[in-house]
């Protein structure tokens, strides 16, 4: 069944979660090449920073190649005037082509919350409303607007979702934990289902997406069916299977050699995109995706990740590829 929506996604769609320092343009390219999600998000980008001297550094989080078609810009901050300005620039295509803007109202980080941003907005509806309205004014209906949030601050608080559902949003993504729970307990999908019921009553045209602990395509589809959701968002599941958005993932059948080759592609992209301007250590968490689950993998990872530059790392990966190729 096709849902009429401004993202042009079919019901039962899957999105790649925004993950700071993870889903940059390099990793999104890897995931898109493995099997593309229906929607992707940038890492969260601070609008107050974008409107300050830090703009040139921060805007790199929004830069993306022309061919990347399914991308939503996720923004956060405090000053509604800056939300207005950045939303306008995004709709004016100053940062390239995006298919929507998402407001982060869920990040639980201590410093962010202390400053009153992201999940702190759950307890500051006046500012949340100003931010939503300022962003809408900047977008002038040219792009859809969505919010990503949690179940509540200290406890589940459906009044927050009722409030959001009255703002005529195009999509609402719910990470099934409260702010206090951080990532320490399992996501509460029943509560996500309750928010979907609220949506049916209050704002039938808002897409509802559930998020939290989904580790496979099948699980995502089961949750969509069970909780009658429009879509599911997957974050850390990509660490276990970069092909997770495919209903026929080849990940478990892929040879060790092919996984080394995929890591090589990742590092080459990292090198070409960031020229080592991001510390090489950002690749540590990715190394674990590709070089894992075989005897000696820990030692190989430790050796690879002791590299001081992408060139050194590539040389070591090439040596591994040569060794593995000779074994075949
Ligand atoms: C390393 C990391 C960075 C994250 N950065 C963001 C972010 O920039 N914006 C956001 O809305 N959520 C962020 N999240 C939360 C994820 O989008 C997602 O809600 C959370 O990981 C739960 O989904 P999962 O269990 O599928 O990973 C981040 C999570 C992780 C693990």
Strand order of the largest sheet: 1-2-4-5-6-7-8-9
CATH architecture of the largest domain: Alpha-Beta Barrel
Major sheet? 8 strands, parallel, barrel
Q: Averaged pLDDT, please? A: 96
Number of strands: 9
Number of structurally distinct domains: 2
Runs with pLDDT <50, length 5+? none
CATH superfamily of the largest domain: Aldolase class I
Count of separate DSSP helical elements: 14
By secondary-structure content and strand pairing, the structural class works out as: alpha/beta
Task: Classify the fold: give the CATH topology of the largest domain.
Answer: TIM Barrel
Could you please describe the fold and organization of this structure?
With 328 residues, the chain is α/β, with parallel strands linked by helices. It folds into 2 domains: 13-240, Alpha-Beta Barrel (TIM Barrel), CATH 3.20.20; 254-327. It contains 14 helices and 9 strands. It has helices at 25-34, 47-50, 55-58, 80-91, 110-114, 125-139, 158-165, 189-202, 217-226, 237-240, 256-274, 284-290, 297-304, 310-327, and strands spanning 13-16, 39-41, 45-46, 71-76, 100-105, 145-152, 171-178, 207-211, 231-234. Strands 1-2-4-5-6-7-8-9 form an 8-stranded parallel barrel, surrounded by 5 helices. The structure holds flavin mononucleotide. Flavin mononucleotide (FMN) binds at residues 17-20, 22, 43-44, 74, 104, 106-107, 148, 175, 211-214, 234-237.
SSE layout:
Layout: E1 13-16, H1 25-34, E2 39-41, E3 45-46, H2 47-50, H3 55-58, E4 71-76, H4 80-91, E5 100-105, H5 110-114, H6 125-139, E6 145-152, H7 158-165, E7 171-178, H8 189-202, E8 207-211, H9 217-226, E9 231-234, H10 237-240, H11 256-274, H12 284-290, H13 297-304, H14 310-327
Parallel strand pairs: 1-2, 1-9, 2-4, 3-4, 4-5, 5-6, 6-7, 7-8, 8-9
Helix pairs in contact: 1-11, 4-6, 7-8, 11-14
The structure holds flavin mononucleotide.
The site of flavin mononucleotide has 21 residues, from loops.
